[in-house]
Amino acid sequence: MAPLVEVKEVSFKYGHLQVLERVSLTIEPGDFLAIIGPNGSGKSTLIKIILGLLEPTEGEVFLFGQDLRHFHDWYRLGYVPQKAAHMIDPVFPLTVEEAVSLGLLSRKRFPRLIGRADRPAIKKALETVEMAPHGERRISELSGGQQQRVLIARAIVSAPDILFLDEPTAGVDARGQDRFYGLLNQLNQKGLTIVMVTHDISVVSRFVTKVACLNRRLYFHGSHEEFCSSPRIRELIAGEDHIIVHRH
Ligand code: ADP
Known about the structure:
This protein has 248 residues and is of the alpha/beta class. Helices cover 29% and strands 25% of the residues. The chain has one domain: 3-Layer(aba) Sandwich (Rossmann fold), CATH 3.40.50.300. It has helices at 43-50, 85-88, 96-101, 119-128, 144-156, 174-189, 224-229, 231-239; strands at residues 5-14, 17-27, 32-36, 58-63, 66-67, 77-80, 162-166, 193-198, 210-215, 217-223. The longest helix has 16 residues, at 174-189. Residues 14, 17, 19, 37, 39-45 line the site of adenosine-5'-diphosphate. Belongs to the ABC transporter superfamily. This is Metal ABC transporter ATP-binding protein.
């Protein structure tokens, strides 16, 4: 099958600051890919480039075989951003259902109204993340783990082919995290391709199928088995916050 995402020799600068350097990466259907690297290593920037939110300084990105510059089917990509605090602001009291319905806007044309016809999709997304009984509640009243599951529901309500998550468990307690990764695993087993950005190497453990190590450049991209069986990688990651292995 053709790759869902192809990043080809992408570089990016914020002003003079080189954040990404000639990064090439392919995401295949069914992957559960963890993009790992220390803080400031360019992980969020790479995701934002793939989502068309930032334009690469050099290089190209193809989504579903199409040049990103001509791509319009954004509903096929779900995104759980790192900073979704505006969704959870107690001053802006969004209910769970309202928050999830926002995820449908990318499928709509003007006038982008949410109507009765959208209810089954919203219900299904909430059922998937086991939040259906909480649809009427304010997001601000929920626990960190519950809020995170609502954000997933919002990202999957448009039935995307691929789900991107940026540091998804910040502010979620250990029990909430287990449940959260269990949910991601289930979605992946059902065929959803998942790309998760994290600086926490321990989450790479159980469910991911592939790992990419980024620190401005891509230092490793391969299967989870290869990643785990490389003593050099383990050693370096255990010892330091910096990933300095060259495998490409
Ligand atoms: P990560 O997600 O790996 O923590 P980022 O992609 O967020 O890394 O950031 C990479 C680098 O780019 C960091 O040095 C960060 O300070 C810088 N950076 C991020 N966003 C901006 C911005 N809007 N303007 C200038 N520099 C930025």
